[in-house]
């Protein structure tokens, strides 16, 4: 038996719907445990429930404002030092177990601040002690298990510290190697570190030197030759962005900035729970009204479109979990707005379908023409909204555009919602109508003009 194209697409839709339902369901519903599959796809472990990331306004947590002491930093280096501090503190709180935390910089005159949002944090005292430390950079020699090669990362057992520290490093800069055009990181040592670095490189030619930041190995370059002038080049970066990231980390130790807690605010989870409950209630009421309108106005077509909307919500929630989208109240607003955009697409198609029927075409032809001729309007409307979403999301971090995490959360869920709605509207709903909708052809009697 040969399956038609709509039947094949329907099987595909059923498969991804079942997989999405499995990923979305919690591990336990009331007293019933949902069976889990002992199966892995890459880094995706299907045997465990995937957590839906929640924002500070929903999950609760800690909001901290830090002030950076820039007295010992030259004015031309302060922006670099602040960015390095931001990266270093971000890594610290990630190690602390606070995922998807938000960190923003704020500069006003000679006032340099970092604003941190730490959702779901359970030990604020320990977190404050951790993020309030000044970055500590050390140069060390890695120790490997005897009989193993230094290239085998699994054999690394310890580090032996040297007398060279971040206080001896002047700065690190991402640039390109003039001989081959490859991205590299240039490092320059102060007078206090030139002799130390020269001795270190002379005694360890062909061996690795580890650069530790807060006891974490940032990079472990291999010494090629003795370097007596305190100017070295770290190669191995795959892109200029990777070189810039390494330079920022090194500058966090070369330009250590003391920080102190200016203010902290605990946001209770009960506030988020109340807000999310009201948002879900509003969403359910709104979606129910949309479904009733679609069924009441378009009958069987409206019911099939409503099924498409349910699948749209299922696919959206699945992507939120798979890609760790951080869901906040503005993000929920973006999702609900994209639901409205999905309904608009269905209405454009159905109204166009009515016009084709009134023109005397049979319902299968009218259905295909409706989707084809409504596509231009759907595409233009959604493209305009996606462009607006990208401007709000500001992926390039332009200073003259928005940098607010809440607005970005709204933009991200809106963009994802629109892209998924295009898939469910053009592929899912269209295929369901082809298989399960049987329309009527309106007979139009043409009167001959006298």
From TrEMBL:
The chain crosses the membrane at residues 285-315, 322-343, 406-428. Signal peptide: none annotated. Residues 86-141 form the Protein translocase subunit SecDF P1 domain. Gene3D superfamilies: 3.30.1360.200, 3.30.70.3400, Multidrug efflux transporter AcrB transmembrane domain. It is found in: Cell membrane. GO terms for molecular function: protein-transporting ATPase activity. It is a multi-pass membrane protein. The keyword Repeat does not apply. The keyword Ion transport does not apply. One of its GO terms (biological process) is protein transport by the Sec complex. GO terms for cellular component: plasma membrane. Keywords: Cell membrane, Membrane, Protein transport, Translocation, Transmembrane, Transmembrane helix, Transport. Forms a complex with SecF. Part of the essential Sec protein translocation apparatus which comprises SecA, SecYEG and auxiliary proteins SecDF. Other proteins may also be involved. This is Protein translocase subunit SecD. It comes from Candidatus Collierbacteria bacterium GW2011_GWA2_42_17. The lineage of its organism: Bacteria, Candidatus Collieribacteriota.
């Amino acid at each position: 038996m040969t399956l038609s194209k709509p039947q094949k697409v329907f099987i595909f839709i059923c498969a991804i719907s079942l997989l999405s339902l499995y990923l979305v369901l919690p591990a336990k519903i009331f007293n019933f445990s949902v069976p889990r599959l002992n199966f892995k796809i890459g880094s995706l472990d299907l045997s465990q429930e995937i957590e839906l990331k929640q924002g500070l306004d929903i999950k609760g947590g800690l909001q901290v404002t830090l002030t950076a002491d820039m007295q010992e930093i030259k004015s031309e280096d302060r922006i670099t030092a602040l960015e390095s501090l931001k990266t270093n503190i971000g890594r610290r709180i990630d190690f602390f177990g606070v995922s998807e935390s938000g960190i923003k910089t704020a500069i006003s005159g000679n006032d340099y601040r970092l604003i941190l949002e730490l959702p779901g944090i359970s030990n604020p005292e320990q977190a404050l002690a951790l993020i309030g430390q000044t970055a500590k950079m050390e140069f060390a020699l890695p120790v490997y298990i005897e009989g193993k090669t230094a290239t085998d990362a699994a054999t690394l057992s310890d580090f032996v510290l040297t007398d060279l520290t971040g206080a001896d490093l002047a700065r690190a800069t991402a640039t390109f190697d003039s001989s081959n055009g490859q991205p590299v990181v240039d490092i320059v040592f102060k007078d206090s570190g030139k002799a130390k670095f020269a001795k270190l490189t002379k005694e360890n030619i062909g061996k690795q030197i580890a650069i530790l930041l807060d006891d974490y190995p940032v990079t472990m370059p291999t010494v090629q030759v003795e370097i007596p002038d305190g100017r070295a080049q770290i190669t191995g970066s795959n892109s200029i962005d990777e070189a810039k990231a390494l330079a920022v980390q090194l500058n966090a130790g070369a330009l250590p900035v003391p920080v102190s807690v200016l203010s902290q605010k605990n946001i209770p989870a009960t506030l988020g729970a109340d807000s999310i409950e009201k948002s879900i209630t509003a969403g359910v009421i709104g979606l129910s009204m949309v479904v009733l309108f679609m069924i009441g106005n378009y009958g069987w077509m409206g019911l099939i479109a409503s099924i498409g909307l349910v699948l749209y919500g299922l696919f959206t929630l699945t992507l939120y979990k798979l890609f760790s989208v951080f869901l906040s109240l503005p993000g929920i607003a973006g999702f609900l707005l994209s639901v409205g955009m999905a309904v608009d697409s269905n209405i454009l198609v159905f109204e166009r379908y009515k016009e084709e029927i009134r023109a005397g075409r049979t319902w299968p032809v009218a259905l295909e023409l409706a989707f084809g001729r409504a596509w231009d309007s759907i595409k233009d409307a959604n493209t305009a909204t996606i462009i607006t979403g990208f401007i709000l999301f500001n992926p390039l971090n332009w200073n003259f555009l928005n940098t607010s995490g809440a607005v970005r959360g709204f933009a991200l869920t809106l963009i994802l919602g629109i892209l998924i709605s295009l898939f469910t509207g053009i592929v899912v709903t269209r295929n369901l109508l082809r298989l399960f909708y049987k329309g009527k052809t309106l007979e139009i009697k043409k009167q001959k003009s006298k």
